[in-house]
Design goal:
It is a single chain. With 144 residues, this protein is α+β, with helices and mostly antiparallel strands. The protein has one domain: Thiol Ester Dehydrase, Chain A, CATH 3.10.129. Helix content is 19%, strand content 36%. A seven-stranded antiparallel sheet has the order 1-2-3-5-6-7-4, with helices on one face. A hairpin with a 4-residue loop joins strand 2 and strand 3. It is globular and about 45 Å long. The chain starts with a strand and ends with a helix.
Length: 144
């Protein structure tokens, strides 16, 4: 059975106590982090089109969660998103993220947002830096 990943209850993406947040639940299957989200009208950009910034935010989170599954706390250093086709309000999206490489404090990741048939809406790459010192302590105290 896949395990649910750590979260901070106030997080805009995964927090269940954030009144304006996405409330996405993230899981880990042993190699990839993932979540399923329905494109909510509250987050449309153009009429009936889900905002690309929200897609980017979810890709960032799923890639960070892939690192967090290794019990490593990181912050985003760099991220590139490719938008392949528009997401319509009401579409169900499956986000997946995985680690491609780790060297020292740097973690490289990839992610994808796709439909039920595996057709990609967007893809991403990310570079994350392992937190240390006071920042690491603050991040560790945030998660539940």
């Amino acid at each position: 059975m896949d395990s649910e990943l750590l979260k901070y209850s106030g997080c805009f993406v995964c927090g269940d106590q954030n009144p304006i947040g996405l409330k996405a639940r993230f899981f880990f299957d042993g190699s990839q982090a993932y979540t399923d989200v329905v494109a909510d009208k509250r987050f449309e950009g153009y009429s009936r089109i889900y905002h690309g910034g929200i897609i980017s935010t979810l890709l960032d989170e799923v890639m960070i969660k892939a690192v967090l599954a290794n019990e490593v706390y990181v912050v985003t250093a760099e991220m590139t998103v490719k938008f392949l086709r528009p997401v319509k309000v009401g579409d169900k999206l499956h986000f997946r993220g995985w680690v491609t490489r780790q060297r020292g404090r740097i973690w490289l990741t990839e992610g994808v947002a796709e439909d039920a048939e595996g057709q990609a809406y967007a893809s991403a790459t990310g570079k994350y830096v392992e937190a240390s010192g006071d920042l690491r302590q603050a991040l560790m105290q945030s998660v539940e």
